[in-house]
Specification:
The complex is a heterodimer of chains A (168) and B (145). Helices cover 27% and strands 36% of the residues of chain A. Chain A has helices at residues 42-49, 52-69, 130-148, and strands at 2-5, 8-11, 14-22, 27-35, 38-41, 77-79, 82-85, 99-107, 110-118, 152-154, 160-162. Chain A has 168 residues and is of the alpha+beta class. In chain A, β3 (14-22) and β4 (27-35) form a beta hairpin. Chain A contains three helices and eleven strands; from the N terminus they run βββββααββββαββ. With 145 residues, chain B is mainly alpha-helical. Chain B folds into two domains: 30-96, 434 Repressor (Amino-terminal Domain); 99-145, no CATH class. Chain B has helices at 13-25, 30-52, 57-64, 68-76, 83-93, 101-108, and strands at residues 116-120, 130-134. Chain B has a two-stranded antiparallel ribbon. Classes of the chains: A alpha+beta (168), B mainly alpha (145). Chains A and B meet through β2, β3, β4, β5 and α1 of A and α1, α2, α4 and β1 of B.
Chain lengths: 168, 145
Amino acid sequence: MDFLNFGIIFVMSNYSLIEIVSFKKVTFYSVKEIYADEELIWFSDFIKKIENEEKISIREMLKMIGNKYEAGEQFFRHEGQAQALPSKKVNFIEIKSNLRLYCLRINNNAVILFNGGYKDAQKAQDSKISFHFQQANMISKKILKSINNKSIIVGNDNRLKWDQDLII
Amino acid sequence: MGYIKKGKTYPKAKEQLKEIQDFFNTESPIEEKFFIEYSMDIAVEVDKELKKQGLTQKDFAKKLNKRESEVSKWLSGLHNLTLRSIAKMSEALNKKLILTASDAEEQFGNKAKVINFSTYKVEGSPKIEYHHRKKSKKHIQVSNF
């Protein structure tokens, strides 16, 4: 749906959840944005933007969390309603301190990875990645609401279940 | 407002999913893997021990005779940890943070030799299985693949 507002065309997308990878202890999901015939998986956009060194660190970090540690709170930093990787406390030497991968930690075994990038200002809101910060917060609210109204169900195994047609 | 730009064409979601799978399937250089694993293991161990002993990062800094900002750097990855700083942290926590393979063998006997292999798969891809070495939580063991 488009609507005209003072001459600027805003694209109103729909969003759905998608499972992207499942490790021994954690399943990672992402958000699929849908507009007309176009689709964009946010995490796919994120990995295209980051530098090669960081790709290795992000990959290994997610694998370690997924296979060895589980997604404990200590690995995440709070970013409004959402969270981001890496955390301030438990961090990894090769990741630049201004890199943010916004996400939503549902529990120790389910994490939804959003988009992100390099933060170039003290506050995420003032940075070039502020759009991703805002989107992460917007979608986190929607996802948490969907969990509350049982459109998304957290199973006994802590994995997420939802109707394939679900638009968040 | 969404992130999709009007007029721009994106690869199909299936292709994007394949790119994500390729991202996770790519083997990182072994040295980098060890480096990240050690960094993470030590940071996690310190964090766990601080919680166990009911210490804040401020208390920990005091014990180390360091400024909180410096200790925060040690644990935040802005600083490349040296053996010296790991030794200082071990002293402050009264706990050995790293056990060599020989130490572990001596301490845990045959249990330390047990190597478990676990597998994980990437959803939606042809079934490719990866072997991931599960180590004892109590030691870091370096061995050849």
